[in-house]
Amino acid sequence: MMTIFEDTQQKIQNTIFFSNLGNADLDDKNLIQFASLESLLFSSLNFIWLPTSLTQEDPFYHKQINPKILIEQRLKITKMITQQIKAMPDERFKYKAHDFNLAAKNSICYAFRQYLTEDYFNLGGHWQKIIDLYFKGHWVVGMSQEKLVVI
């Protein structure tokens, strides 16, 4: 039986991240979907961006003291994600002078790291939902009124 870590590694290797960016193909009332970055930026939606930096706080859980094994797994997952998305930059993450390539890269890495922490400490399922959307090829940019904002 595979561990969550091993299963996640296997899925990462078989996923083309951001491949469904802009396809509003998700049937979920807990999502707010946009067809493009431009449509999100021009919307009147009041939302909070999900974290993109290690120094930002997890919006769902209090900070945990991570054991060495978890730190190593988080590092390995980050390297795997980075390898999978290294072909970016991508014009779909740009709007005029604004370039969100780094934000997209950092947010996916943050989400997967926090998912491993969430699973290790049995905290809940917030990050699980988010990485599932990444596995489906979408970019989860933020939250608004308890719903995830997705391109």
Write the layout of secondary structure elements.
Elements: H1 4-13, E1 31-33, H2 37-41, E2 48-49, H3 68-84, E3 94-95, E4 98-99, H4 101-120, H5 126-135, E5 140-144, E6 147-150
Parallel strand pairs: 1-6
Antiparallel strand pairs: 2-5, 3-4, 5-6
How would you characterize the overall build of this protein?
The structure is a single chain. By secondary structure, the protein is α+β, with helices and mostly antiparallel strands. The mean pLDDT is 94. The chain has one domain. A hairpin with a 2-residue loop joins strand 5 (140-144) and strand 6 (147-150). It contains five helices and six strands; from the N terminus they run αβαβαββααββ. 41% of the residues lie in helices and 12% in strands. The strands form two sheets. A four-stranded mixed sheet has the order 1-6-5-2. It has a two-stranded antiparallel ribbon with strand order 3-4.
Give the count of helical stretches: 5
Query: Which runs of at least 5 residues are low in confidence (pLDDT < 50)?
Result: none
Write down the overall mean pLDDT.
Answer: 94
Q: Quick one: how many beta strands?
A: 6
- Give the terminus-to-terminus CA distance: 34 Å
Structural class: alpha+beta
The figure for the number of domains is 1
Radius of gyration: 15 Å
Order of strands across the widest beta sheet? 1-6-5-2
Largest sheet: 4 strands, mixed
% residues in beta strands: 5-15%
Order of helices and strands: HEHEHEEHHEE
Helix content: 40-55%
Global outline: globular
